[in-house]
């Protein structure tokens, strides 16, 4: 059947729009600005974490120099919280994590904990978590309209599409709660009423480990040095879980090129050299992302006009349910496109493990992990490391 001329013209205009956006990308990532830092690694043959690792440069706020006592009315703490989406049945794993983070950092600074759940927390959960910390603890329930699938999602299409994901061995594809969690972490967590006046957060999940003593206020560091986002681990995602995420992103950017940061991280997002099969299956996206089970972030970024418009576009497309778009690639793509690269920080000095991956620095402040060890398990896990791309295009800052 012949395609009507007006439709052909509209299609041509749409393609031209995408090409113009990609032209802007290529010029904004290779010229027109001074690349951040001088710490790029063109070919990572040796893990930077094998080198002696210290604290970030600059003036840092320390507990012994300022008042961080739990009940102080004049505390040096800024507007920030430790944030954990967790269920009652994960209590034991969470308490283990809390003990680690309290021992290595928070017992000095006493930042509050905010726990979120799609169900009410039990008295036992509250009791045991409060026993671990001197800091204040808040227990909040996720509003139902933030958690449930939006009305435009087709349940039958979800069932059929999830079968395809299962056939491709995509983890958690058959779990509705996982899809809801990914959507919530992508575009809802910063809208919770209890966080309305909170700016910075440190995301903490059950069953993770912290290995290094951190002796400065990381939230103050974020504020004082104008950082938007901090990460420890940088991975490839399964391309079969998000085949339309990048095409939808391109559609959005064709309509909103004004949101693209001049100093963006586009090359990291579209690299097709390190794992070309990923780029091909993900239709132009390298699948590189910050592993968001650890993130220290500024919620003002997620509350921005650019991010909110981007999330709403993705939400309408339905990929959180029809595919398995995770919050990690969504956060990472948004940061890589809309934020200045200099405002993203690698917390190389924070020793961290979420099975099976590590961030383990070479520092006398660390114990319990092997410096430079990236993974534990089968050798194929080594291929999931996207830091070489990040260090090549963005740097180790």
UniProtKB/TrEMBL annotation:
Keywords: Glycosyltransferase, Transferase. Pfam families: Glyco_transf_15. Gene3D superfamilies: Spore Coat Polysaccharide Biosynthesis Protein SpsA, Chain A (3.90.550.10). The keyword Cell cycle does not apply. GO terms for cellular component: Golgi apparatus; membrane. It comes from the Eukaryota. The keyword Glycosyltransferase applies. One of its GO terms (molecular function) is GDP-Man:Man(3)GlcNAc(2)-PP-Dol alpha-1,2-mannosyltransferase activity. Its EC number is 2.4.1.131. InterPro entries: Glyco_trans_15, Nucleotide-diphossugar_trans. SUPFAM superfamilies: Nucleotide-diphospho-sugar transferases. One of its GO terms (biological process) is protein N-linked glycosylation. Belongs to the glycosyltransferase 15 family. PANTHER family: ALPHA-1,2 MANNOSYLTRANSFERASE KTR1 (PTHR31121), MANNOSYLTRANSFERASE KTR4-RELATED (PTHR31121:SF7). This is Alpha-1,2-mannosyltransferase (Ktr4), putative. It comes from Talaromyces stipitatus (strain ATCC 10500 / CBS 375.48 / QM 6759 / NRRL 1006). The lineage of its organism: Eukaryota, Fungi, Dikarya, Ascomycota, Pezizomycotina.
């Amino acid at each position: 059947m012949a395609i009507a001329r007006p439709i052909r013209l509209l299609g041509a205009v749409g393609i031209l729009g995408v090409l113009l956006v990609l032209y802007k990308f290529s010029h904004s990532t290779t010229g027109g600005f001074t690349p951040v830092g001088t710490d790029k690694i063109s070919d990572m043959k040796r893990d930077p974490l094998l080198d002696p690792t210290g604290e970030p440069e600059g003036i840092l706020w320390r507990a012994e120099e300022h008042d961080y006592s739990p009940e102080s009315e004049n505390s040096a703490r800024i507007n920030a919280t430790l944030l954990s989406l967790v269920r009652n049945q994960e209590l034991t794993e969470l308490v283990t994590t809390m003990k680690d983070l309290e021992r290595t950092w928070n017992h000095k600074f006493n930042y509050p904990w905010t726990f979120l759940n799609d169900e009410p927390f039990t008295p036992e959960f509250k009791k045991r978590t409060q026993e671990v910390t001197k800091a204040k603890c808040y227990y909040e329930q996720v509003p139902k309209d933030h958690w449930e699938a939006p009305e435009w999602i087709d349940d039958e299409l979800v069932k059929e599409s999830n079968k395809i994901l299962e056939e491709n061995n995509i983890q958690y594809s058959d779990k509705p709660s996982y899809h809801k969690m990914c959507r919530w972490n992508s575009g809802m967590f910063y809208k919770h009423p209890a966080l309305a006046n909170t700016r910075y957060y440190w995301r903490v999940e059950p069953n993770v480990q912290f290995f290094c003593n951190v002796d400065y206020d990381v939230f103050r560091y974020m504020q004082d040095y104008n950082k938007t986002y901090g990460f420890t681990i940088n991975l490839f995602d399964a391309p079969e879980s998000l085949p339309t995420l990048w095409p939808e992103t391109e559609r959005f950017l064709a309509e909103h090129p004004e949101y693209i940061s001049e100093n963006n991280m586009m090359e990291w997002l579209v690299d097709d050299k390190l794992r070309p099969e990923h780029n091909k299956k993900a239709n132009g996206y390298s699948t590189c992302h910050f592993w968001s089970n650890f993130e220290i972030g500024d919620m003002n970024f997620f509350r921005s006009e650019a991010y909110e418009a981007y999330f709403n576009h993705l939400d309408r497309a339905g990929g959180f349910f029809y595919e398995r778009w995770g919050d990690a690639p969504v956060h990472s793509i948004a940061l890589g496109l809309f934020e200045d690269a200099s405002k993203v920080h690698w917390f190389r000095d924070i020793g961290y493990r979420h099975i099976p991956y590590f961030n383990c620095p070479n520092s006398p402040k660390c114990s319990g992990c092997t410096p430079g060890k990236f993974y534990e398990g089968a050798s194929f896990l080594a291929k999931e490391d996207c830091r070489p791309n990040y260090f090549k295009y963005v740097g180790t800052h």
